[in-house]
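Late entry, written up from scratch paper. The run itself happened at the end of the previous shift, but nothing got recorded in the book at the time, so transcribing now.
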Amino acid sequence: MDAKTNSHETPSWLGRTLMTVGISGAAFAALCCVAPFMVAGLVTALGLGFILDDSILIGLLIVFIGVAALGYYFVRRQTCV
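Output as recorded:
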């Protein structure tokens, strides 16, 4: 840890990773909502066919958008300080 880094600061890779996971998860959930026939075979083959229910997909979309927003917050806080 160098002199500029406080112990309460998040690592720089964490914000970027959270944004990547959040955006890709939100895109997948939105794709499943809009066109489930495109991913139904893959999801069912993996044994995750239960997530094709719209109520679960909307929840996943909200969670992944929140993860992306948290990652964006970490990235902005890192660059602005």
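The radius of gyration is 17 Å.
(Scratch paper discarded after transcription.)
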